[in-house]
Amino acid sequence: MPKPTQLAQMISKSPTIAMNDKAKQLAAEGHSVIGLAGGEPDFDTPPHIVEAAINAMRAGETRYAAPSKGISPLLEAIAAKMERDNKVRVDPTSDIIVTPGGKLALFLALKAMLDPGDEVLIPAPYWVSYPSITQMVGGVPVTIETSSDDNYRLRLEHLREHITPRSKALIINSPCNPTGHMLSSEEIESVATLALEEDLYIISDEIYEKLNFDGRPAVSLASIPDIADRVIIINGMSKAYAMTGWRLGWLAGPTELIGVAGKFNSQTATSAATFTQLAAVAALNGPQDCVEMMRQSYQERRDFIVDAFNSIPNMSHPEIEGAFYAFPKVDETSKTSEEVANTILDEAVVVGVPGSAFGITKDAHIRFSFAEDMNKLSEAVDRIRAMAHMLA
Ligand code: PMP
Ligand code: GLU
Fold this sequence. Notes:
With 392 residues, this protein is an alpha/beta fold. 40% of the residues lie in helices and 14% in strands.
């Protein structure tokens, strides 16, 4: 019998999705489970965006999109948004590819830049899919572990220690999933220095850019003039507009690399759905108060969740600057993060994702999404508080 690829041994199902599926299954079996594993807004997509999709379908916009890299009104809306929000100028006719989801945009970006064996520097905690996608396209992920004790700061010397002749790219995610960390100007300078010194591409995953707290704007790495020509932005509709199920994202950056990614997109996805793209046009060009309303709501829940975890004996949490994840640490424990996650699942019936899934080996962290109903969050914290002594 033929066998599936050897990669099968290296790649597991996305742990965030696996834990989210598990929570849904436990609920279906009648357990009083609180699922905080999946990262997605609890809001419905704003009605004017839904209307735009329905109108587009009724108007017969149900065929393959042309051009396959994205319909012109959407490419133009993305370019206008990038100029307005990010101070980044791109040519909509050559520098953007629209994809069915930011995750595929990341896949295409890595596929377009890596030769087999090329290394990708990935600061940890990282979003779970960065190393796996790197491996799926033949690259080698190189983890650079940072720590909550140091506020997850990226230090130039630490980055330099991981450089080899095969280093090709660095992935930055600010605000970060799972920590919410946003790069400081000093860290941006370190990233720029390293990329220029070592001739690296930078993948800047900006999918949480709109979910920033306390008035501190997220800076796009493509707005830094010295490195603009080597930055590939990954973004999409999922988080800012509560459109996770619509599957719409994009990558934008240097014309040559985007051209390669466009060829690969046409050979795999073909295109994102036409009516979804028209809905995205309505979202990007329409009123933005819905985005601000959701952001404020996440900020309120952030305030609650940070205080709550800090008030549980033996757990600690630094400030969260953006995104919608809590990533508390169990301070004094002999348990691994998997054991912590399993104990919380068994004893509190609250589902999170262990810190190891995000590349953290030194401390016992667990990730909970706080894009959930306040009553559920509060109940989850109460349940964890009641069993926290079992985490030692
Ligand atoms: N980047 C990060 C950091 C994410 O958390 C996600 C969420 N899955 C994505 C990219 C991709 O999102 P999507 O495929 O829904 O656009
Ligand atoms: N980005 C979300 C998360 O981290 C959705 C699931 C996924 O794609 O990983 O939970």
